[in-house]
Design brief:
Shape: elongated
Structural class: mainly alpha
Largest sheet: none
Strand content: under 5%
Distance between the termini: 38 Å
CATH architecture: Orthogonal Bundle
Number of helices: 3
Radius of gyration: 14 Å
CATH topology: Helix Hairpins
Order of helices and strands: HHH
Length: 76
């Protein structure tokens, strides 16, 4: 797993399909679903869980920065 797409495909294997149009919302709810699946024992491999979690955290940070930069440029 290396990209957000990989995490989406991983979650799809467990029945989660993202229907959110806003990227930040999608990332947030993917992280919630990932944690729920892990807590329920449906993701037995800790490496898969932690890798996916790190990818989601990185993507959330990058998207938050992009949205903030877009707002700054709008008012400048």
């Amino acid at each position: 797993m290396k990209t957000l797409y990989d995490v989406q495909e991983f979650l799809k294997l467990h029945g989660y399909i993202n229907l959110f149009s806003k990227r930040l919302d999608a990332i947030f709810f993917m992280a919630q679903e990932l944690k729920t699946l892990y807590d329920a024992g449906l993701i037995p491999n800790e490496k898969d869980y932690f890798t996916a979690d790190l990818i989601l955290r990185r993507e959330h940070r990058l998207e938050s920065e992009r949205v903030t930069d877009d707002k700054k440029n709008y008012w400048d």
